[in-house]
């Protein structure tokens, strides 16, 4: 890739670049786009009015179609902690319309300097009450930070309805993964976000960053940067709903993976082939313009909860020999192939005599 004197850091989103002023000014992009870009650059988020002229009708139709699919009574009685439906856009035209809004897609391309595509939606009738977190732990890219979220309120939301919470400026912090907290995924299969929550809490305390709450009006949307710490406040008044939709976006010409399930030093990368809602097909992985071969992206899946490793099975791997040499694996009655890929490689277990 030829060196670009105007953009010496093409692997950094324009909106997060130290050369921000080269691409964003009121004269270059207009007053409103500049405000949005400046807010994301400095704070990690920006509030916009969702750009759909029929948003009131759109949101009401969406809620009417979804309300019967949630067990709100069980939630209000404390029998379940949260309610959400993932990727309802597959069957709901209103959700699809929100996720694929052309003005949002155009804005994101301007902000990030690459074409965006929606890959996941989440629909909520109540607050998530989710611990604050960085999305970069769950779905990231190479180069990093080419991901963002757009949350839109489908009704007015006050402080007692479990509004979004976030920590301004936290998007500028390093992206902390297993290597930073002394954790190796291969030696402890089944890593979850909770392992990192104590770290985030101490980071917030050490930085002295105050929590902010987004008490939104119907039709307001929040765009946040990949590494912004955000979550859901306590839903205090459970007699009230908190209707909203989140759409997550990635950007073209990247490699996509899950850092939480990756050990790069061991050659283990949990690659993803994210689903592009616009094209209704999966996106291939690219690195600086070059396609990453399929035999590297071994078994990549558009589903974030299925992980296979970027490493082939040894050609001389024999499952029976592996079980004989590792009696604890046999006793556990697990699949030898899966165990070797998930654990055996990292633990340097013997698989041949």
Give the neighbour order of strands across the main sheet.
Answer: 1-8-5-10-3-2
The CATH H-level homologous superfamily of the largest domain = q2cbj1_9rhob like domain
Q: What is the count of distinct domains? A: 2
Quickly count the helices: 11
* Outline: globular
Task: Let me know the largest β-sheet.
Answer: 6 strands, antiparallel
- Helix-strand topology string: HHEHHEHHEEEEHHEEEEEEEEEHHH
Count all strands and give the number: 15
Which fold name fills CATH's third level, the topology of the largest domain?
A: Jelly Rolls
Radius of gyration: 22 Å
Summarize the structure.
The protein is 27% helix and 17% strand.
Provide the fold topology.
Elements lengths: L25 H4 L1 H13 L1 E5 L5 H12 L5 H5 L8 E2 L6 H7 L2 H11 L3 E9 L15 E3 L4 E7 L10 E3 L11 H4 L12 H14 L4 E3 L5 E6 L4 E3 L11 E8 L3 E3 L17 E2 L4 E2 L3 E2 L2 E2 L27 H7 L1 H6 L3 H12 L6
Antiparallel strand pairs: 1-8, 2-3, 3-10, 4-11, 5-8, 5-10, 6-7, 6-9, 12-13, 14-15
